[in-house]
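subagent[fold] <- orchestrator: predict structure for attached chain, return tokens only, no commentary.
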Amino acid sequence: MNNTQLLKNDTIPVWKKVLPHPLPLRRTLERIHVPFPNGNKVEVYILGTSHVSNDSSADVRVLLEYTRPDVVFLELCDQRIPMLAPKSEGDPVPSNATFWDRVKTVQESSGMSRGSAIGTVLLTQVQDEYAESLGVELGGEFRAAWEYCQRDNPICILGDRPLKITLCRSWESLSWWGKAKCLAALVWSSFQKPDPQELREWMQNILEGNSDVLTESMAELRKSFPTLDRVILKERDAYLACKIYQTCRHLQRSRNHTMVAIVGAGHGPGIRKWLTDGNGQTPEEILRGIVETKKMKDVDNLINDVTQLPVGNNIF
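subagent[fold] -> orchestrator:
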């Protein structure tokens, strides 16, 4: 689509038409304004990405260079900080480690049960195989954002719920039969080599806004594992939205600001809905219901704090 066609396309909002190519074509890119009583507001760009896509990494670079945001918000938590380093530097487990060595490492570092650790290793293995089949590194868009942060020193926020809590709540939500089905599905996926061309087409459809593809994928998850859809997707939509709002609430004390939030494409619509519609509760009230597990009750820091990844001298 050339510039003339772009300007005449009524389905693309005016604010998006002025962005550099290919951002105007990204249906997973949204913009909202979070206003506050003092008259200040925070302009928030929400960029939905694929974690195994070079296109997403390029989109991140283009958007950050154009907007020069005050804050970069990442769908990461403390446990996934190693993802910001090249795989050879960021993987705490040797490449020649056995499956059970990896399970043991996950258990020791996170305190997970053996079943949760097995599921985590299987899921990581599947993601790594997808990335390898496409010739990319998992989470390349986050590394692109981190490289920008190290150079330009914006505030960098880690906004995702801790992986340990998400996995524990997921495991706790399943019946014994659900646990068996989930592990079996992960084992099956680990032996099924993905077709690179099919993966590229699937990701491109999502990034260009083919909502049917994403809707079908989410519907399949809901059909097979309804509680996982709630815990992994909907609860994290709420968590990410709450952390974006808490960050904005802190920023608005001084002046207007711009934030770029980089999240998985499946989270964009839910985050937007939470930030624009809400449900009458404060972020802190919402968070209290989605961060506790049967073993973890002392979670006040997750409810009230925003996690900043230090960059230069820029302190939040």
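orchestrator: received. Logging for downstream: The first helix runs from residue 3 to 8. Residues 210-215 have pLDDT under 50 and may be disordered.
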